[in-house]
C-alpha cells in the first residue's frame, strides 16, 4: 500500500489553468511523495450546475506570463474569448477518461496531447480527426485508437464524465483546476487553482521550490 499523499486533480481541457495545474502536479510527483489521480470533468456543466459565470478579465495577458513562468509554451489566441466560447471539449474529456479505462499507461500522455493541441497549437479538440491526431501523438497503437474512438460514444464513458463532474461539485468545486488533497495522516483539504502548490506543500509537510524544480533532480 502506498504511504504517499493522494492528490486528485479535477480538470477540463478547455481550462488553461487546468493545463498549468496538470503539468505542475505531475512535475511535483518526482519532488514530493504524492500520487496524482486524474479526474477529467466538464467545466461547462459545473458552471451551469453551481451557477458560476466568471469574468475573463485580464486572463489572456496573465496566462501568457504564467505560461512563461512555468516553461509551458502556451499560446493565448488574440480572439481568446471567442476561441474558448466556441470550443467544445466534451469529447476530449471523454477521451481522457476512456484512455484511463482502456490504456491507463497512456492516460496522462493522452490528456497532455489534448492540452497541447488546444493551448499550444490552438487547434480544436472536437472532431474525430482532431482526437485521433492526439491519440497518435500520445503513441497509442492503431487498434487502441479505434477502440478509444468507439468507447467515447458509449453511455458508460458519458456517465463517467458526468459522475466526475458531480463528484467535483460535491466536494465544493466552482472552477478549475479543483484539487483534493488527502494527506498520509488522514487529513483532507481542497484547493482552487494551479497557483496553490505552496500551500498544498505546507499541508503535506513539503516545501514548494518553484515550477522547474523537477529538472534539477535528473
Ligand atoms: N488563480 C487560479 C485561477 C483559475 C481560474 O481562473 N480558473 C477558471 C477556469 S480556467 C475558473 O474556473 N474560474 C472560475 C472562477 O474564477 O470563479 C489559477 O491560477 O489557477
Q: Can you characterise this structure?
A:
With 218 residues, the protein is of the alpha+beta class. The protein is built from 10 helices and 4 strands. The two termini are 26 Å apart. The mean pLDDT is 96. It binds glutathione. Glutathione binds at residues 15-17, 52, 54, 174-176, 193-195. Glutathione binds next to helix 1. One of its GO terms (molecular function) is glutathione transferase activity.
Could you give a quick summary of the protein structure above?
Its EC number is 2.5.1.18. With 218 residues, this protein is an alpha+beta fold.
The topology string of helices and strands comes to EHEHHHHHHHHEEH
Query: Largest beta sheet: what is the strand line-up?
Result: 2-1-3-4
Biggest beta-sheet profile: 4 strands, mixed
User: Quick one: CATH class?
Assistant: Alpha Beta
Q: What's the architecture, going by CATH?
A: 3-Layer(aba) Sandwich
The parts where pLDDT drops under 50 for at least 5 residues are none
The fourth-level CATH homologous superfamily is: Glutaredoxin
Quaternary status? single chain
Radius of gyration, whole Å:
17 Å
Shape: globular
Q: Are any ligands bound, and if so which? A: glutathione
Amino acid at each position: 500500500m502506498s504511504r504517499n499523499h493522494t492528490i486528485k486533480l479535477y480538470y477540463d481541457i478547455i481550462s488553461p489553468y487546468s493545463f498549468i495545474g496538470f503539468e505542475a502536479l505531475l512535475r511535483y510527483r518526482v519532488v514530493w511523495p504524492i500520487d496524482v489521480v486524474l479526474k477529467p470533468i466538464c467545466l461547462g456543466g459545473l458552471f451551469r450546475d453551481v451557477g458560476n459565470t466568471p469574468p475573463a478579465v485580464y486572463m489572456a495577458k496573465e496566462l501568457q506570463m504564467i505560461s512563461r513562468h512555468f516553461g509551458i509554451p502556451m499560446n493565448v489566441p488574440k480572439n481568446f474569448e471567442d476561441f474558448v466560447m466556441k470550443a467544445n471539449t466534451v469529447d476530449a474529456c471523454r477521451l481522457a477518461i476512456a484512455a484511463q479505462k482502456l490504456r491507463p499507461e497512456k492516460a496522462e500522455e493522452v490528456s497532455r496531447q489534448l492540452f497541447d493541441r488546444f493551448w499550444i497549437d490552438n487547434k480544436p479538440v472536437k472532431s474525430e480527426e482532431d482526437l485521433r491526431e492526439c491519440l497518435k501523438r500520445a503513441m497509442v497503437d492503431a487498434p487502441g485508437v479505434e477502440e478509444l474512438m468507439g468507447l467515447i460514444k458509449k453511455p458508460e464513458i458519458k456517465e463517467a464524465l458526468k459522475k466526475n463532474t458531480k463528484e467535483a461539485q460535491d466536494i465544493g468545486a466552482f472552477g478549475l483546476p479543483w484539487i483534493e488533497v488527502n494527506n498520509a495522516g488522514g487529513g483532507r483539504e481542497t484547493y482552487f487553482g494551479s497557483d496553490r502548490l505552496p500551500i498544498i506543500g505546507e499541508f503535506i509537510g513539503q516545501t514548494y521550490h518553484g515550477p522547474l524544480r523537477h529538472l534539477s533532480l535528473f
